[in-house]
Every structure is written in structure tokens, then in C-alpha cells.
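Per-residue structure
===
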Amino acid sequence: MGAFQGWVGEVDRRGTTFAGEIQEARAVGAARVLVRGDWGNTGHGSGLEIASNFCRIFTVRSGQIKRVEYFQACAEALKAVGLEE
């Protein structure tokens, strides 16, 4: 299991709710899709709510996702695809 998958699993085990919502999905060239969204979680024991945004770039070949790049800052994702804000 990768580090990111482990982290997601740990967040899920500790939270009572986990929700994400896509705000934008945009084709970038013929083989990439930039996805921006929001996600959040409520701590199981503490009741503490956390919220953040996310940006991902999906590379698609032959109709299948071949690569996913994760970015903490959407500005970095935009720069990676040549679309700086």
C-alpha cells in the first residue's frame, strides 16, 4: 500500500464523516484532466471538523486513467499543465 493510500485509510478510520466534492473538471490537451475540489472530515472522538481543497491531474490513455498527480496547492497543478493563474 502506498503512503497516500495509507493516509486516506487512517483518515477514514478516525473520522465519522468523509466527504469530497468536485468543483471543476477541465480537459488539458488530449490526454490530461485537471480536477479541483473540496473535501472534509469530522473527527470521530473530537468532533473536530477539517476542510481543505484538492487538485489532481489525471493522465488518460486508451480510455483508462494511467497516472494521477496530487497537488496541495492548485496553483502548482495549474503550473504543471501550463495554465498559471
In short: The mean pLDDT is 84. Residues 3-14 form the longest helix (12 residues). The longest strand covers residues 15-28. The radius of gyration is 15 Å.
